[in-house]
Fold each of these.
Amino acid sequence: MSSQHASLAEKFNSDEARTNWHDQTLWWVRQKRDRAANALPEWEQLRQWASDIKDHTLSNLYNYLVEFEQNALSNGVKVHWASDAEEHNRIIHSIIQEAGIRKIVKSKSMLTEECHLNFYLQTKGIEVVDTDLGERIVQFREEAPSHIVLPAIHLKKEDVSDTFHEHLNTEKGNFDPQYLTHAARIHLREKFVSSELAITGVNFAVAETGGIVVCTNEGNADMGAHAARIHIACMGFEKIIPKAEHLGVFTRLLARSATGQPITTYTSHFHCPRPGQEMHIVLVDNGRSRQLGREDFRNSLKCIRCAACFNTCPVYRRSGGHSYHTAVAGPIGSILNPNLDMKANADLPFASTLCGSCTNVCPVKINIHEQLWKWRQVISAEGLTEPSKKIGMQLMAWILAKPAVYRMAGSTARWVLRNFPSVAKSKRWNPWYKQRELPDAPEESFQEWYKKRQRS
Amino acid sequence: MYTVGLFVPCYVDQFYPQVAIASLQLLEKLGCKVVVPMNQTCCGQPMANSGFASLSYGCDQNFIQNFDGLDFIVCPSGSCTLHIKEHLHSTQYPNKADSIRRKVVELTEFLTDILQVNQLKGKFPHKVGLHNSCHGQRGLNLSSMSELVAPYFSKPASLLQQISGLELVLPDRSDECCGFGGTFCVFEEAVSVKMGKDRIREHEENQVEFITGGDMSCLMHLQGILKRKNSKVQVIHIAEILNAGYE
């Protein structure tokens, strides 16, 4: 039986030229990241500092959250606490409703994707416009982002041209990037100006100051927040860092890891509402406390959402973000999502060869591939692997624990493969054989050869 | 000289005996006393990586019974070595398990670090592409990794460079995974094969005659794809090259 990721990945691979393009595009981003990292001799030291700061923060999270809340409140910001996605959505809707607003703009926030905020608000009759260009493209297409930094990386400019022709009435067949981005710019300007409420994400929240930092390349978070009467910033509570002086460690790592830029074009610091504006911060748990309590997985909360692990992952590059069927795809998603819904995401920790490249690029040193391995153990202990796989593994374990049985099984298997190879040569029943030949089955195993040598 | 236990991965024992023979001969030529425990089976990795580490108890016990009391345990596989190093446990013999975890060494690392081989007398007049296995490289640190900002080194390459006539070529993506990944190769067949095809394409563009590496499992996967497309490129384990023509 094929897992959900495996079957979606197989579908993705049915267009090999497009798979090559996807792989090469993201590999190009990985190479940019390598060049940026190698330009800093202190790169590995920075990673260690970032990891240490995050570890410390996670161990003292309660204190830093309280400190952050007090400072934000004294800055004139309204602070809300949401225990789960539903409460997060409800809080935001009530702010919108009280202000009597129907149209809002939103800059990129993976948290709101995780909480399915757009869908929630749309069912309440609110128009939500994503203002990040990539997010706006996938929103038009009623798709989910396929990458947390590059939401429309699965699309080519020809696809964007078709989408804009349909929704923005651009010229059919014109896929000049400058032409298309100009069309998006005009469209989005109008939305920025007419919206009274802007939602942004948060990259870092500084406990010491009560301020938040939002990093974008398009300036869309700033456009939204500056034009609107109300600014709501949504954050998972792991975004906290203790002091402003720690920020530099993270901003130096974030953009270099994400896209190979030394810094994002806009690194915006929001501390208090401007006169006449309302500013809200929604602090969200949504399973994070549970993850914090899982000893083997707690440090996944160090993640700063740079997506370097996506770009380096040889499986992600060849299966696409949608094959992960969750808001946060890629290797980090595969260790975060089983915490949110273990049954629905039981396939994800297996969508990896455990090659370890993710762990090496991670700017905050999350041991991603080791956590993938550990999730596999948890998932099978919870009985969430396919029964046929479990029976196969039990049989294998039984054979391999008994040397005489192992030798007998080995020589029998080789005899069958030599004399009746058609047994294993079924593209239908043997996935190995679909696109690969079987290894030759020798007459003698090494042990058999060695025994003869000892006798002679 | 050292008394070395030869730890032969189960699939090598059954399908690639020539790799174990080459490892044995090479170690003997280099002056080691090699012991081959005849009741060894498997390290237990297939179960553990599939989420059933709990089922590898029998393999662990058997491994300890076979490999207790040696100077070193040498294995021509980075992956199996890493599994033992990270996951061999025993409630009955915790000290023995601990000692084995410290004594197990991958073959090329044993040659470079323990035997400190620097003048192999082998001959292999061919153009050879090196495939770095992930578990050997990232798991056992057999060579520097493209993701890290650190000085270059490569234990397998340093050995291959001692072989006369051998022209070594590395692909541009020098340490991308081949897609084997244990049971990943069948449960994620499409991605697994695509990853393998992409590795092969780079080696073919480099016009190599052989692809070598320290893990026969990666090479078995690449060989399956090469054979299906009737490619002239062959796979060969690094032990076979290092042993070739070595007197």
Amino acid sequence: MIAFARGAAALVALLAIAAAPIGKAPPPPPYAGIYQPQGVDEIGAWREADEDERALANAPEVIRDEALNGYVRGVLCATVGKDRCAATRIYVLRVPVFNASMSPNGTMRVYSGLLLRVRNEAELGAILGHEFGHFERRHSLERFKAQRTGTDLLSWAAVLASMAPGYQARAGYNTMRWSVYGQLYHYGRDQEREADLLGLGYLNGGTLRPQAAASVWHNVMAEVEASSRARGLSKPRYDLFAFSASHPPSAERAATMEALADPQGDGRDDGADRYAKALAPWLPTFLDDQIKLNDFGASDYLIAMLAEPGWTPRLWLARGDLYRTRGNPRDLVNAAEFYANAIAADATLADAYRGLGLSLMKTGRPSEGRTALRRYLHLKPDAPDAGMIAMLAPAEPVEP
Amino acid sequence: MSVRRLRRSALLFAAVTMIATPVAANGYREKGKQVVIAGSTLRVTPPRDWNLLSIRPGKKAETWTLDGEQLNDVTWYAGIAADEPLVREISRKQKPLPKLKQSTLLVEIPELLETTYRTERQIGDFQVTGSAPDPFLGQPGIRFSYSYVDSDHLPRRGEARATLIGGKLYMATFDAPRTHFFDRSLSDFRALTDTATLS
Amino acid sequence: MYVGRMLAVAVAAVLSLAVVDARAQERTAAKAGFELPAGSGKTILVFRPTVSVGAQSTGGMFEPNGDWTEQARKNLEAALAEQQQRLGNKVISAPESYGADAQLVAEYAGLFAAVSQSVINYQFFPGNRLPTKKRDNKSSVFDWTLGSGIAALPGAKDADYALFLYNKDAYGSTGRKILQVMALLGPGINVKSGEHAGYAGLVDLKTGELVWLNADNAMGGDVRTPEGAQKRISQLLEGIPGSTAAPAAAATPVKTAAR
């Protein structure tokens, strides 16, 4: 079965190379304007999407910060243009997963995990444009039809397999399962290629730097590799990440993106400064949501990526928390160092004193630890855990 | 705590394997009768009637409820040892859960519960709202509260009590929808955990 | 992830076997002493019913059908109004709400779903019944509530009861029906064709108590037609104590927990 999967993967890769375009992506076709669904399947899918959107609009996970929503919408509009943008309602969701999606009725879901991972407007535009490409080409409808055919085949196989009991038939069913999913997978690849082409077409025609699309894929691969390595997996498991499972990354894909990008756009602004400013109020929250997911490799990779323009006290703090929670003896020594770096850059960062104090207490330096914890209580007397920390570090008559 | 998901997969498993396995009956925890938690030395004498769910979240844990785990869920963790997760791991390699460490301090137990919930349920909104020293099982312990939006999109609140004895974690958590159910049974949880002893 | 889910869906759909005899399960229960006789002058606030109608493909996948859903929604709403007129009580629709109000409605709808799920799992399904509920059942107790905070819902002050309705219909496609026959003739597997689930619940808007719940995974009536919707509504509302809702068409008798 593994051999089969490997064979299928090789075949898919071959097709990808054969179909790789040579030049830059053409501009997208003129926008068809407001579209109304046609046919039973499509009208049904829209109705479901409308119902889902009703529920989504009132879901507790939705981030209703006007500034953030306005900003994300602005990046989408700058990428796909005003007309297309008007067909979309954006919902930013506090879900620490790298993903974005678009329903057939124009509902776009942007997950906080995506906002944490892209580094500038051009990268965000590349992802949103790609999803918009699926929407414009009405891929979800095709995928639905393909899935239906796929599951139909599986049902028959299950019945046939149980009609002829025995190991052989079961094995046959299993093989069948693989081939049906292989087909679905491949089918998705064609749509992916089409959405890539459209996405780059938008970017080329916009104001942002189209070369950013390729860097998204390099980063996705690097993160998955870092995550898998830290978990001791022998191979990167792209299927364990929502985004890379539905958007299989590969070196070829990144190269294709590179080729599709208009070379003349290379000098354009990627909006990194504006992006950092817009995300600043949310970054500590999104970062905290990520480092508490127990994915050491991915989190460490992301922190390092965010620190590329320069380390900030918040990033040192996050790295300290990440190492302290993993909690091997060497991690605790590292954590203490990271917290100390945070404090050196910002002596008022209360949580860094907390982390420093706890790390020192656990590595045989209790009196220094208590000093740090008292500093934490001094800076944050109303901390939710003030009572617990005060017990570890009883107050001294003189504040250090 | 993970009973909800386990239950779902158990039903799916029953469907898949085509075995009409009768679901093991849920247990009765009668008022005033002392019982042992998860085969450990932790003993509880419930001040009112409770139910024990047949599906356990882990080898050293069990879940009690009044109306079903979606509405009120008391989960006991009895003697989690160093390098063990709080609940059963679905996949040790692909989706590892946070582990208790030899060096974990009592003040860090809320973080352990938080990271376990977040990792297991892929939720993004979880907040520890308070913690304070409070003896549990006659030992120095911690009582803490939290709130989160669960994977069924229903906002929930929780309270927990924990202590570390000889490097092992003993903890009881109470989780319920923040609307009505949390306030209604919080005093029952407190009265129940007050009867817990270690023999 | 995606493939895994697909697999789970496909396998579960293919093998939706009758693991449990559906008839052994109770479907309706009411709080002791609750009655809603005709002419009692009560007002019932109806929250936007969840209606979803489609076909079921051979593989068991749900294919939503927009036209059917729209027809069904219209038919069900008309049938509900007519049925309640016959019951002699006033039915009003919950006002469309926005912002914080809408979020509160969503939270209560979620809570109603959680409570209903618990009733179905732990009271209606005898093999899985919670021992404390078992004992309660013996003394005819049906004790479930959403809490008195429900009185804050928009429109609640003008009504006595809230009615929550849920309907999902999947009509078996030809392929699914052939599969059903083949599976039964061949290996003797019971493959389900079509899904017709519905549940309805009445909540006291003053106390938050769930006074009556009816949940059924095998409902009758083709909701795509006005007559079918009539039948469905009378099945859904069947068993409200005190009501004399004469079913428009013959409906299967149900067991009641609170008798």
